[in-house]
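Handout, section B. The chain below has 220 residues.
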Amino acid sequence: MKTFVVIGLGRFGTAVARELSDLGHEVLAIDGRDENVKKVADRVTHAVAGDARDPAVLRALGVRNYDCAVVAMGSDIGDSTLVTLNLKELGVKQVICKVQSHVHQRVLEKIGADRVVFPEHEMGVKLAQSLSSSNVLNFIEVSEDYGIVELAVPGSWQGKSIRELDVRNTYHVNIIAVRRGGDEGHNLDVVPGAERVLEAGDQVVVLGRNDDINRLHEVK
């Protein structure tokens, strides 16, 4: 079990706090409005109404003892910046921040945020990727240039080994996992060998530059 602090209980923060709690982790949820705190009070370990911009409040709540803090109050750059600074100065091990823009992202990275998430942007990218090709099952943006995509094995790849396909040189991507027949269970082969033969119904997880991943849409 890990321990988390979630600061800001809008839709994003509430979803994060509830899901972490449902997964069995200890969660301290903080928001400046009582009504937001009441909405999650019965779903998390602790829920507190307080001003996270005040380092004394965070210190009193013992946030430095938590494994990770999620700053979900992304609508105000000034507030989220101040809270992030407070958390870093208090020595929180990992601080993850929601951002609304690339400018916001750069500011938080400059002051030491360990990771930033851009929910609207990431969801938009995932939706566009899934809509652009019927064989794309899921897409994860690793950075502005790189992504991981899970897709159904194209017909032209079926019956061929990873060595025969030579995807690294042909498509400039790497197959990092294969799921046999789309099985959600244990039939996931992570870092498959070159002799692994891809079959109809298989799903492959591919890592590469976004431009190269986009070209996989043309593979039939």
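Note. The two ends are 44 Å apart (CA to CA). Compare this with the example in section A.
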